[in-house]
Design goal:
The complex is a heterodimer. Chain A has a domain of 168 residues: P-loop containing nucleotide triphosphate hydrolases (Rossmann fold, 3-Layer(aba) Sandwich). Helix content of chain A is 30%, strand content 25%. Chain A contains 7 helices and 10 strands. Chain A has a 6-stranded mixed β-sheet with strand order 6-7-8-3-9-10, sandwiched between helices. Chain A has a 4-stranded antiparallel β-sheet with strand order 2-1-4-5, covered by helices on one side. Chain A is globular. The two termini of chain A are 16 Å apart. By secondary structure, chain B is an alpha+beta fold. Chain B has a 6-stranded mixed β-barrel. In chain B, a hairpin with a 7-residue loop joins strand 2 and strand 3. In chain B, helix 2 packs antiparallel against helix 11, helix 8 runs parallel beside helix 11 and helix 10 packs antiparallel against helix 11. The longest helix of chain B is centred in the C-terminal third of the chain and has 44 residues. Classes of the chains: A alpha/beta, B alpha+beta. The interface between A and B is medium-sized, with 31 and 29 residues. Bound molecules: adenosine-5'-diphosphate and magnesium ion (MG). Magnesium ion (MG) binds next to helix 1 of chain A.
């Protein structure tokens, strides 16, 4: 039971200052612990530092001060190779914006995290096709991502993030460019991923509509965490046992 | 690198098909550079072939002429010594004499060079027997040059008898003994392709029979391994003789051609350099266009090495495509020139030859060379690509 909920990602006193000239900091002494199986929403107004925080705990951006741990390992002491493996296998990231290779069709874009590692074409395409079927996108597999609608693109990005079946998922404004109905659909998929596949989810949003999807909401403002709210209705501690 | 190779190729081919025209034009530029170099090299080879093989026939390449040094004589025992040297395949003695000859009618005696030797001499010297055949030993036969025919009244000398008399040694080195009168008849069995020197070639036995003590004017040898020619020359020098090898001349000429080839290649390199700049430009544009793509790849765990390999694969493929185009261009141009040249030669009634000569190694070398050019051109863009940060894609939209 205890092992189920140990801390998978931890930010300790993370500070980020983009330019040494300006006084303003994108993040100030942020400390955050994310437990295995949790659904966390980072919530706050635009420009408060949510994306910066997500990119730092993903290892793309270095903090000016502070440490990030992935399980027990310091993220920024990893070798390049280890960090690449984190991005390939351990954390799935669905970016806010269009993030596809325009020369590749949907199927091959979904395969991207399995490319260049010697994995045979057919086996990875089979797996990608499965994921696309699950998301009802199989009829678009030969199309190019730029030809799809925003909601479809978001689902393709979701499929791509799943291809190596990572245990941790990051979403940056997954509903940002979508209408209400499509947004809801995407949110339900994320919830399903958390409940049924027991994935740890960290989601960034400035939209208050979906806050009750999370076990825990982290409120941010001006680069700081100002408040944390547990959603008791969802009973995180028992949730992973409930399903399946 | 190897594990991902098929993916690099896959990605690069996708990139090419998204940018067909640009890819083709870049390859074409490389192709023109490579093709002109290809042409220059095969042109030089053509010239070299013309000079070396038409002017010096192959059989003579491995022969040398030994002549007595300043104060020495080639007698029979030194002939044996030379013939037994390890690199010497065959040794043919020759005695240069001069005398007078007349044809059947016996009207006038003409001064003529008389070379007393064995039938092998003709083979190793590379003079062609134009009519008739080579002479045989002990048969009283001889060969005459075309130039000699003009001395006689009849234009057709084959099968006729020549009367030869008053032979004297042509140079002092062999005059250790006086020659008794060698009057006699020899039958003309072949005409040699030589319009300059009026000469007859007779059986050396005929001279040796009457003057066994006569020294040799020279020895023609055939060498088993020409690359060791200098060792052989030293050995021959030690016994006081000198050796002149056809190979030396050829080697000198070859060296000259190597220089010409190098010079021409340099011109080709300049053309290629220009093409390479074009390719570099294309690679840089391609890099800028794909900054976001690369950023995303990196964000999903594609390693720096893989990004570098993608670009190197791309540039190597452009180089290879350029190489193929260059070979095709080179082949087409040289085939056109070769055949029109042959056609023209035929029209003026002369024997044609190829201006451009192809060798498999040129084609192979051209291909390898252009792939290398591609790879080298790709190094810098590949390095820059591998340094692109994922944030560049994600941050600024
Ligand atoms: N690369 C950057 N260089 C300079 N400032 C940046 C950069 N990225 C983000 N910022 C600044 O940091 C702050 C936080 O940005 P961000 O994390 O994107 O906010 P959010 O995702 O909450 O909207 C903003 O003021 C933004 O302008
Ligand atoms: Mg943001």
């Amino acid at each position: 039971m205890e092992r189920e909920h140990y801390i998978v990602v931890e930010a300790r006193n993370v500070t980020k200052q983009y330019s040494s000239v300006s006084e303003s900091m994108a993040l100030k002494e942020v400390t955050l612990k994310i437990r295995s199986g949790e659904f966390i929403i980072l919530f706050g107004p635009s420009g408060c530092g949510k994306s910066t925080l997500l990119n730092i705990i993903y290892g793309l951006e270095r903090p000016t001060k502070g440490e990030v741990y992935l399980r027990e390992k310091k993220l920024f002491e990893m070798s390049e190779r280890e960090l690449d493996e984190v991005h390939r296998y351990k954390i799935g990231y669905v970016f806010q914006q269009f993030s596809f290779l325009r020369n590749l069709n949907v199927l091959d874009n979904v395969c991207l995290p399995k490319m260049f590692i010697g994995e045979p074409f057919n086996s990875r395409r089979k797996r990608a096709m499965q994921l696309l079927e699950e998301l009802h996108l199989d009829q678009f597999s030969r199309r190019y991502p730029q030809e799809l609608s925003g909601g479809q693109q978001q689902r393709v990005a979701l499929a791509r993030s799943q291809i190596n079946n990572p245990r941790i998922m990051f979403f940056d404004e997954p509903t940002g460019n979508l209408d209400k109905k499509t947004g809801l659909h995407v949110m339900n998929m994320i919830r399903k991923m958390n409940r049924h596949s027991k994935k740890t989810v960290v989601m960034v949003t400035h939209d208050p509509s979906y806050l009750d999807y999370a076990h825990r909401v982290i409120y941010m403002q001006d680069g700081q965490i100002i408040k944390e709210k547990n959603n008791h209705r969802l009973m995180f501690l028992t949730a992973p046992k409930e399903s399946k | 690198m190897i594990a991902g190779l098929i993916d690099y190729l896959f990605l690069v081919i996708k990139q090419f098909s998204a940018r067909k025209m640009r890819t083709f034009l870049t390859m074409l530029a490389i192709g023109v550079g490579v093709g002109s170099m290809f042409l220059l090299v095969s042109f030089v080879l053509g010239l070299q072939d013309l000079v070396l093989h038409r002017i010096a026939p192959v059989e003579t390449l491995s022969t040398a002429d030994i002549s007595p040094g300043n104060l020495s004589y080639i007698n029979d025992s030194s002939f044996e010594q030379v013939a037994k040297m390890p690199l010497v395949n065959a040794a043919v003695p020759i005695i240069y004499l001069s005398g007078q000859a007349s044809d059947d009618g016996g009207k006038a005696f003409a001064d003529i060079s008389v070379n007393a030797t064995t039938p092998d001499y003709i083979k190793y010297d590379g003079i062609a027997v134009k009519e008739g055949r080579n002479f045989q030993q002990g048969q009283g036969e001889c060969l005459i040059t075309r130039a000699a025919i003009q001395l006689f009244s009849e234009p057709e000398m084959l099968g006729k008898y020549l009367n030869i008399r008053e032979l004297i040694p042509a140079n002092s080195n062999i005059a250790n003994t006086s020659i008794p009168r060698v009057d006699g008849e020899v039958k003309v069995v072949g005409v040699l392709d030589n319009d300059e020197v009026p000469a007859v070639y007779i059986d050396i036995e005929k001279v040796k029979n009457v003057a066994p003590e006569l020294n040799l004017s020279g020895i023609k040898i055939s060498i088993s391994d020409v690359s060791q020619i200098n060792n052989l020359k030293e050995d021959i020098g030690e016994i006081g003789f000198e050796a002149d090898a056809v190979y030396d001349m050829v080697e000198e000429t070859s060296k000259l051609f190597n220089y010409i080839q190098a010079g021409f290649s340099l011109l080709g390199v300049i053309g290629l350099f220009v093409a390479t700049i074009g390719m570099f430009n294309t690679m840089t544009i391609s890099l800028l266009e794909r900054t976001r793509d690369i950023g995303y790849m990196r964000a999903f765990g594609v390693s720096k090495q893989s990004v570098r390999s993608i670009f190197l694969t791309e540039s190597a493929l452009i180089g290879m495509g350029g190489g193929f185009l260059g070979i095709v261009i080179g082949l087409i141009v040289s085939i056109i020139i070769n055949s029109s040249f042959r056609f023209l030669a035929l029209k003026v009634g002369s024997e044609g030859f190829d201006l451009f000569i192809f060798k498999w190694w040129i084609i192979l070398a051209t291909l390898i060379f252009s792939i290398l050019i591609g790879l080298i051109t790709g190094i810098y863009p590949a390095k820059r690509a591998s340094k692109i940060s994922p944030l560049e894609s994600i941050r600024y939209e």
